[in-house]
Structures are given as C-alpha cells and as structure tokens.
Amino acid sequence: MYLEEEKEKALDFLTKVVEDDVKNGVYNRPVATRFPPEPNGYLHIGSAYAIYINNSIARKYNGTFNLRFDDTNPLKEDLKYVEAIREDVEWLGFKPPVYFGSDYSEQYYEAAVKLIRKGKAYVCDLTPEQMTEYRGTLTEAGKESPFRSRTVQENLNLFAQMREGIFPSSSKVLRAKIDMSSPNMNLRDPVLYRIIHAEHYRTGSEWCIYPMYDFAHPIQDWIEGITHSLCSAEFIGHRPLYEWVLSELGVSEPPKQREFGRLSISGFVTSKRYLRELVEGGYVDGWDDPRLPTIKGLRRRGVTPESIRSFLEEIGVFRQNCMMDSAMLDHCIRQDLKEKAVNVMAVLDPLKVIITNYPEDQTEMLSLKNNENNDTLGSREVPFSRELFIEREDFMENPVPGFHRLSPGKEVRLKGAYFLKCEHVVKDPITGKTTELHCTYDPQTKSGTGFNARKVKSTIHWVSARHGIPAEIHLYDKLLKEDASIMESENDWDAIVNPDSRIKLERAILEPILQDAILGTTYQFIRHGYFCLDSKHSDGAKGVFNRIVSLKDSWKKKS
C-alpha cells in the first residue's frame, strides 16, 4: 500500500528491489530498514543521505525504519556520540525507534558457537602481521593458518576461555573457515571476534570479546526483522560474507543487503577520518564548524532540515559514488528560506553619511515590509535619522561607466525612505580614504507617498547611525581550494584548505531589530544573503552572525 503522493514517482533501482520483493511475497513481515552508525563520530550530509534513503523506502511501503548503534568496539565509542547522533537524526525530522548492537552480545556469542560446532569457525593465534602475510594479495591466494585444523572441541574450549578473559588483548581471534583462495579477500577466513580488554560505555566490563562489524551486522539485521539492509557502495564486496553468515546460521527469510553510491559534495570533506584530521589539526572551529558538512556544522551555519531533505529528494538514489555540485545544495537552501526569512538592512562595511538638511534631533519611523515574497510576515518600523551608514561599495567618487549608485552630485533612493544626493566628500588627510559623506535629502520623495516626479537608477540600503547595533559577520566559502584534490593517503591540509573559506567582518552595523535576534531564526540581509546568529559565539553583547548562503543562485536545473 503506497502513500498517495509517491504513487506517480518513477522507481529508483533500490526501490525497485523492494517493490519486486513485496509483489512476490518474499517476506512474511513488513518492509524494514535501518541506519546503523558507529557511535565514534558525528553525522554528516552523507549520513543524512543514507538515513533519507532507508526511511523513505520503509515509509513508502508502510514499513519500519530503525536507528541502531553499531557499538561493538569499546576503544572508539562514547555516549556523547550516541546523544549527538540521536539529536541530529531527530533534528533532520526522523523519529525512529532506537536499538543498540551491544544489547545482542549474547546472541552474537551463541551464533559464533553455532559456527564452531558446524566446523565453520576456529580460534587462530596468528599475530595481526602474520595474518596479513597469510591473507595473500589480489593476484595470489592466501595460505591457511596452522591453527585452522583445530578440532571443534578445542575451538569451543578456547573460545569459552577468550570470553572468560584468560587471554590478553589481540592474542587470539575467532575466524570464519571459508576459503583462503577466494578472489574476494573478505572471504579469506575473515575475523569474527577479537579480544579487547576495555570498558564498554554501556556494558562495562561484562565482555572482553567483541564481534567484528561484518559478523555482527547481519545478525543485528536478523534480530530486528530487517528485510532490506541498504548501505553504501563500499560494502558491496562484503555482501557475500553478509550472506554467508546468515546462510550458515540457517535463518529463514534472511535480510537482503543492497548498496547505493556514497554522496560527496564539491568543496566539502565527507570522510570521517579526514574530518577528524581537520578538527584535531585546528583547521576548523570544531565538529560544528559551519564549513563542515557535519549535521552539527550545517545546523550552526543556519541550514534548515527542510532544505536538506529537499536536496536529498532532488538528487535521488545513485548506484555509484557521486560528487554533487554544492551550488545545488545552496539552491535548495535559498528556495526554503526565501519566504521564511525576515528581510532586514545590514551594512557590512560602513561609510558614514550626514544628511545636512535633516533635523539633528529628529528620528522618523519608517514602515518596511518584512518579506517581499510573503505578506503574512507583516512589516516593521525602522528608525531614520540625520546620520546614517551605507555600504562603502555603494559610493564611488569617480564612478566608472555603469556605476549608478552614490557619487558626487548624483542621487540614489534610500530603501524605504528618501532620495539622497551627495554634496561633499570628507577624506582622511593622511591616507586620502573617504571617511564621511555630506548629503542632502528631498523630503518630497518619501517612499510610498506616490511622488514620482523624478527617477533614480539605484536604491541602496542603510542603517541609522544612532540606532544601529554593532555585529561581527562571518562569511563562509568552500573549505577546500577550487583545484584541491583529496588523496587516499596523507593530505597536506595547509596546501589545500582555502584560506578565505571564512572571512570575519568586525565593523558591521545592523538594524536595531536584530538586537533581539533569536537563535535559530533566519534573516535575509538585503543584498548580502541569508544569515543567522552563531550559536557558539553569540553569547556576548556583540552578536555574531553567520552567512548561511548568498543571494546569488548559480544552480540551473537540467531539463
């Protein structure tokens, strides 16, 4: 039974697999999918993609979608990651039931014992270095371990002793007995269990042996009734082992693993390992740096969950790893914000203007729309006074052809206010830099009064000097340089990180309404883009605003 809004959509290759299984009655249980993160790091946009795919397919068939923590390695996991992942998944708009792989420890052990009894698993004493040597290469078969011929009873006794904690960490492992000559390296007697004497964040010291992911994962899926184990393409070579485990355990209606391409976005780093290098190397401001594609970074930047879901829906499901243009993500962000954000005036590089014919002690409240695209957001009162700030780039003493903003003897309209004419330029006597403009205004040209005797070619924004509030502005660009290439091995981050990926503007002046800006609320700074308060640095008297995205949209949909 399909949801009505999805009936007409063409099926992607993953949904087609599920569709065929549903039609053919492959499973006598509802469609069930899962997202199984390791609690050893933070989610990123690629994680959101996997969550979206699994949730969407389950939802389409009125099935279930689980969040399951694959917490079977006590050396790397932490409760802080569990809490962060749960928070991010909920923020993205998903509320799946939560499971923990560590809750199935006894079932893993029983499954391993079953394989030993069948002669399909054995305890091996080879060192990690020896195991690598014995494994062989892509062109040469591996060699069987000298411990492969241990009897079933020997293996049962040794495995029980491993559980009891008799042996030191890494001294023995339990391996599957498959085929050391298999062309698939993952089938060359892979490790199923290893010894780790370390406290687990949930089970404490109850266990000192822990299953490998390739062994635990199919068992987790089976226990939870998963029908379709949808994962990224890097696991395609692991699928035969997934199927081998379930087959040897003799489960009925085993889950089916299928793979999709990993999502990468131009200018972003999505590898967990490389993200850690950037954070620990001090190249970014923590895991929530707005330049990172972590969910925490995107949230701090001001990206909405609606725009992320829109982006993920737009790109669809692809078979191979895919690099998407970051402009497409920006496009989805703009589309989501354009009717939500309150439009305000913000001067990022202020140049002072004194209106010489305006009363010194007068303040006039002008009514401006909060959003030109959405009348339901209403209007606000903006103070206008004798002294203003305008953008320095909106004035040119010797204008070049095509420049229609303010220059000596020329007029512009101040947004929502009056015509303004530049009469005199004040400069610093030492540097020659323009420090102040003396102008006059025409009181007959107030916006909204119907006076149209003259026309001007440009309208510029402004902020009252007496009422404006100071702020620090952070402008973000791609973290990596345009020609940067991330290598599979070591990366010279000093050479490939874009030094202009974050620009701080410390002299900005904003409309007084932003004195009461609320965390999580988006504002459009007229001509500059969409901004929000920085949740990490906005606890003082001076607000810090992050640019979420500029107004310019370079993404063009392909018809």
UniProtKB/TrEMBL annotation:
Its EC number is 6.1.1.18. It holds the Pfam family tRNA-synt_1c_C. Residues 459-534 form the tRNA synthetases class I (E and Q) anti-codon binding domain. Belongs to the class-I aminoacyl-tRNA synthetase family. It is an enzyme of class 6 (ligase). It comes from Paenibacillus azoreducens. GO terms for cellular component: cytosol. Residues 31-338 form the Glutamyl/glutaminyl-tRNA synthetase class Ib catalytic domain. Transmembrane segments: none annotated. GO terms for molecular function: ATP binding; glutamine-tRNA ligase activity. This is Glutamine--tRNA ligase.
